[in-house]
Amino acid sequence: DGGITQSPKYLFRKEGQNVTLSCEQNLNHDAMYWYRQDPGQGLRLIYYSQIVNDFQKGDIAEGYSVSREKKESFPLTVTSAQKNPTAFYLCASTPPGTSYYEQFFGPGTRLTVL
Amino acid sequence: GQNIDQPTEMTATEGAIVQINCTYQTSGFNGLFWYQQHAGEAPTFLSYNVLDGLEEKGRFSSFLSRSKGYSYLLLKELQMKDSASYLCAVVDSNYQLIWGAGTKLIIKP
Q1: Nearest CA-CA distance, residue B43 and chain A, Å
Q2: I want to staple B91 with a disulfide (CB 3.0 to 4.6 A). Which of A55, A90, B12, B30 is the partner?
Q3: Could you list the pLDDT tens digit for every one of the 109 residues in chain B?
Q4: Do B87 and A42 touch (CB under 8 A)?
């Protein structure tokens, strides 16, 4: 089945540790996105990438880093510089050549920093 | 600044009709999405409007008025499985999605 996978679904880390969240898609989508969702708030864009080896900061990029070495993969690293990393993280991708920008989402990773 | 407003929470009865409103103020407009999100899960696409008017898709309909900066999602024949959050998102002039905080819909028997 084609889709977007994120792993793990739940992740616990100690304060001060870096952690990398995985996002893989086999939909042949060009653009990929990382969002953060906090209770009672909308999705906030962290980083996005429209092609391999290129990515752009979103609204809340501080304390996060990404890479896009392959079209299928867009991992997100939450660094110790992120002051409040506990949140629900969603990865999304967009099909190529569409006239609008429907985003397809992975199942999400809930990160808890202890 | 860019702003999207939705009610925080709504309650409706199984079998009834509910309308969830969304008003927006954004830098440019290239379409509006409605997504459904069950608790702890990913959002799933419901509808997309770029022209004024009503788009109907089964039990769900979405309306857009660009001049008023207003949209609504209409859910008919409510079922318990419709209990979820409904997210409104606008595509701005840079083709970025601006998300509302979502409306939590509670369905009662």
Answers
A1: 7
A2: B30
A3: 789 999 999 999 999 999 999 999 999 999 999 999 999 899 999 999 999 999 999 999 999 999 999 999 999 999 999 999 999 999 988 888 899 999 999 999 9
A4: yes
Residue of B nearest to A4 (CA): B42
DSSP reduced 3-state for A49: strand
Q: Cα–Cα distance between A88 and A111 in angstroms, integer? A: 6
Angle at B6 between CA B3 and CA B12, to 5 degrees: 175
User: Could you give the count of Cα atoms lying within 13 Å of A32 in the half-sphere of its Cβ?
Assistant: 32
Name the residue facing B42 among A40, A42, A90 (closest C-beta).
Answer: A90
Name, in order, each residue with C-beta under 8 angstroms of B20's C-beta and a sequence gap of 6 or more.
B6, B7, B10, B72, B73, B74, B75, B86, B88, B103, B105
User: A110 and B40 in contact by Cβ < 8 A?
Assistant: yes
| B55: CB partners within 8 A, 6+ apart | B47, B48, B49, B61, B62, B63
**CA B13, CA A73: separation in Å to the nearest integer?**
43
Closest among A17, A16, A55, A11 to A34, alpha carbons compared: A55
- Collapsing DSSP to helix, strand or coil, B81 comes out as helix
From CA B89, how far away is CA B67, in angstroms rounded? 17
